[in-house]
Amino acid sequence: MSHLRTALDLAAHGVPVLPLRAGKVPFGNCRTCAKNACGGRPNMKTPGPCQCPGVCHAWAAATTDPNVLNSPQWAIAWRRAAAVAYHPGGAGVTVVDLDNAAAIAWARATLPTTRTVPTTRGEHWIYQGTMQSVNAVRSGIDIKSLTAYARWLGTGNGSMASLPDAVRSLALRQPSTTHRAPQAASAPLRGQGGVCPHRTPAFLDRGIAMAERQITGAREAIHSTVYRTFLAVLSTHGRCGCLTDTHVARLFTAAQAKGETPRHCTDAWTNALTTLGL
């Protein structure tokens, strides 16, 4: 049970962990949570299991609780595990996943030096601080933080630097591969010109809460609902700079509770940004 020993050691140092099965993917939800019938772990804003005792909901199952990691329900997963993963956002870090030599060369020329971990095909560059998780921000580059997991490959080399603006800005750029946005999705443009129309933070909080309810209440056309909701939020709040990583994470976790994958969430968000010219 070497994977479990590794997981327990990481958990003891405050790193939320979970097992991965063959193919570097999480274990599927249990029967109770299949297709997110349980509604997902309540709020799903921080790592940890849902109300069931199984290894459910991908990155949100990551935990530092040794009682959970050693539980009979998790023991089955550990026996079948092919690797250990961790939740970067739960550990307070962001992983820039560089998947090829060209991506590494770009990072060396562009980003501040930080802790690096060799991977099968490239490197993980790890920064102190969290942000939204985004795939394909450039060719061969993914960002893994608040709503993602990363495979544990060791402590790496070098000192960890603070998360730079150069990495945060990648989340606002169109990815290297384009995805066609769902059709028949539109929302009025408001808050243009960079002027914030929100007199109080409560206005934004109400808007995010309404968006969460819209996604959670969807009974069909989940992909389109998520995209339209993201588009509406960005139409209102995307230009004035009031959206934070926490707000984005709330929307992503609501979508994942309805069965959307992190990749679908990222694609929908990126398509909305592109549609609005953000």
Q: How would you describe the overall organization of this protein?
A:
This protein is α+β, with helices and mostly antiparallel strands. The protein contains nine helices and ten strands. It has helices spanning 2-12, 66-69, 72-80, 101-110, 165-168, 201-216, 222-237, 245-257, 262-275, and strands at 17-21, 25-26, 83-86, 93-98, 115-118, 123-128, 134-138, 141-144, 150-151, 161-162. The strands form two sheets. Strands 4, 5, 6, 7, 8 and 10 form a six-stranded mixed β-sheet that branches. The chain has a four-stranded antiparallel β-sheet with strand order 2-1-3-9. Strand 7 and strand 8 (141-144) form a beta hairpin. Helix 6 (201-216) runs parallel beside helix 8 (245-257) and helix 7 crosses helix 9 (262-275). Mean pLDDT is 82; it is low at 173-194.
